[in-house]
Amino acid sequence: MPIYSNFYQTLTTACPIVELRGYAAACGLKGHLYAYLDFNGPTGTARDGLAEGMLALAIEKKQLAPGQPIIEAASGPFATALTLASLTAGHPIVLVMPEDAPALRQEYLLRLGAQIRHSPARSGLAGARALASLKPSRALYSQVLALTAAAGEDISRAELPLWLARLGETQLRRLLTLQGRDDLLSCLPALLAQHPPLTLGELQINGRDLTAAGLPAGAELGRTLNALHRRVLLGELSNERGALLAAATKMKT
After folding, report:
1. Considering just the CA atoms, what is the radius of gyration of the chain in Å?
2. Fewest C-beta atoms under 10 Å: which of 32, 62, 165, 202?
3. How far apart are alpha carbons 25 and 139 in whole angstroms?
4. Exposure pattern of 63-95 as b/e (b: 16+ CB <10 Å)?
5. 161 near 196, Cβ under 8 Å?
6. Is 217 exposed, middle or buried (0-12, 13-18, 19+ CB in 10 A)?
7. Cβ of 205: how many Cβ atoms within 10 Å?
8. Rounded distance, CA 151 to CA 140, Å?
9. What are the tens digits of pLDDT across the range 61-79?
10. Which residues contact 65 (CB under 8 A, 6 or more apart)?
């Protein structure tokens, strides 16, 4: 890394080292005095190098797989630096912070692309660190994101089989519990007892049957099967070979 003799030479260089000749002479210091100017990064603070270094070290030690989410307790300038470094490197980031963290900073971090989870205000940053230390597996993280995305859906009784096929029983129970939908939870046992076809493989016809019936092969075949599957789950069509073939032929025309 080059060493510069004055500040102006550093303006186009990220994190340069400059020799403080005048300061050393004024203080009567022997030898050479150097300063590491760590303010040319994205946030203009020393946290940029720290965040990038942490990521690089974790990747080098194989503690961070490609695309793996990062969960960290932070709410100050380091949160901004880590968010930028993580997202630039292709890692989603979840910041855990006290629920009373400044609203403007939270909004700024959300706009940058971070996700935010809160710890109780009374526990402060120590509580946030404790919560962040409970790092979930990638599978659990994906499940939580799926539940969060579906939390606002207004599920009707008729749509319950569709959601069962989409999420599976365990995830659907979690979602309905999260939404407080005791009415739909009570319907699940009866629905499961009916053994609805939750996958395309459980339909009484397949792609070969459709092509034999004159439907063209290709992407349209898959769309037809998906449409039939949806109608069966909604109770609009019985899962019987004759009924499915008749409905498929009618859809073709």
Report:
1. 29
2. 62
3. 60
4. ebeeebbbbbbbbebbbbbbbbbbeebebbbbb
5. yes
6. exposed
7. 22
8. 16
9. 888 888 888 888 888 888 9
10. 138
